[in-house]
Amino acid sequence: MLFRVEVVGSNPAGPTTRPTGPIKARIFKTLWALKKDGYSEDTLKAKGHRLRYLAKHVNLDDPEAVKGYIANQSRWSNAYRQGVAYAYNSYVEANGLQWALPRFRIEDRLPRIPTEERINQVIVRARGKYVLVFSILRDTGMRPIELERTRVRDIDLDRGTITVRTAKGGIGRVVQIRKQTLALLKTHLGKRSFGLDDQPFPKRRKMTGRWVRLRNTVAEKLMDPTFKTIRLYDLRHFAATMTYHKTRDILYTQRMLGHRNLKSTLRYVQLVGFEDDDYTSAVARTLQEARQLIEAGFEYVTEMEGAKVFRKRK
User: Fold this and answer.
1) Residue 45: how many CB atoms within 10 A of its CB?
2) CATH 1.10.443.10 domain position(s) in the chain
3) pTM listed for this prediction
4) Using the 8-state DSSP alphabet, how is residue 113 labeled?
5) Cβ atoms of residues 188 and 129 within 8 Å
6) Which of 24, 25, 180, 238 has the most Cβ atoms closer than 10 angstroms to its Cβ?
7) φ, ψ (nearest 5 deg) of residue 115
8) Are the CB atoms for 144 and 232 separated by under 8 Å?
9) pLDDT tens across 97-143, in order?
10) CA 156/CA 36 separation, integer angstroms
11) Domain 116-269 carries which CATH code?
């Protein structure tokens, strides 16, 4: 018998099963096969978690039962259903089973970008290293997992940069942090004798947990429940949107985010509107004047009457 059925409470929603040895061994076999194929530790953790969850509720060796269970989870988004189906598909392939991988229609929803003021209202309530953590994520658009992976050797205090150990198959990159954040970073690194290969930042789960507690506190203090919709990952969306807003350079924004596919970056173009921007203009008639304007943050617009016209947001 592969499963023991436990009934909890007087009116349970459904039986809960616990996998015994054979199923656990097959899950391990699945994850080991993925590891040998070069999948990342984060992917292995996610797939393992989803397979163990399924094993508590349905017989993993019955593909049709698994398919029905996934389809009936009304609280799951289609994106999450698809992720669970992909995890189970790995189990099917590793253990010689057969099924037709279901496809769920995933709606693309643009992220809601919080303002810097609202982000800072949360950060200001943080203490210790978490002020630094959230400030870096806001400044650079790094993913929390990328900050977790950062080692001391990746940090250049002279230039105020971090060389990113990328995640999700992204492109390696170097990101810049603000001067105020750099001062916090120097203080943090100076408190302990970190080695070059030490990871000076907390695990992403701790980052996320602390962020959720802080934003919920702000929501209660200000009696504004919309603060509870601001996710830690939205700091990356904020940084991306602001970078494109300031530069209007989609390729620069792509490099900053470490996206391999430009389509992933183009979504931020839809989140920025320029129609209400106020500009100041300037004219350059020589190469030296043009260089000075560019260094001052002006962008080239057009050429008229032998002169180049530049503009910059006020």
Assistant:
1) 11
2) 116-269
3) 0.70
4) P
5) yes
6) 238
7) -75, 160
8) yes
9) 999 999 998 877 777 889 999 999 999 999 999 999 999 999 999 99
10) 34
11) 1.10.443.10
